[in-house]
């Protein structure tokens, strides 16, 4: 099932849904928006990401497309 079919199925269901369904969906939306995944990451991963961002700001590193081009040419 693709995303268009899923959206249509949800739209169809909403037309028949009861109050409980809307409350559940609303809670899911709030939970998704409020998720603080950064705090759930391992501190070593956080440090690695912060180092990578700092290096990127300093102009170090290479763009993804460049690396992938090189790999495709090699293999």
Quickly list its features.
75 residues, mainly alpha
Share of β-strand residues? under 5%
Tell me about the biggest sheet? Answer: none
Overall body shape: elongated
How many helices does DSSP assign? 5
Distance between termini?
Answer: 34 Å
The helix/strand order is HHHHH
Number of strands: 0
Mean pLDDT: 91
Give the structural class. Answer: mainly alpha
Helix content: over 70%
Low-confidence stretches: none
Rounded to an integer in angstroms, the radius of gyration calculated over CA atoms is 21 Å
What secondary-structure arrangement, pairings included, does this model have?
Layout: H1 3-14, H2 19-33, H3 37-40, H4 43-57, H5 64-74
Please describe what this structure looks like.
The protein has 75 residues and is mainly α. The chain is built from five helices and no strands. It has helices at residues 3-14, 19-33, 37-40, 43-57, 64-74. The relative contact order is 0.05. The mean pLDDT is 91.
Quick overview of this protein structure:
The protein is mostly helical and 75 residues long. The protein has helices at 3-14, 19-33, 37-40, 43-57, 64-74.
């Amino acid at each position: 099932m693709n995303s268009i079919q899923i959206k249509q199925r949800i739209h169809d269901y909403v037309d028949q849904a009861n109050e409980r369904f809307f409350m559940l969906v609303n809670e899911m939306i709030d939970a998704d928006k409020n998720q603080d995944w950064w705090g759930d990451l391992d501190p070593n991963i956080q440090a690695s990401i912060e180092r990578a961002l700092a290096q990127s700001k300093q102009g170090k590193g290479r763009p993804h497309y460049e690396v992938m081009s090189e790999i495709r040419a090699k293999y």
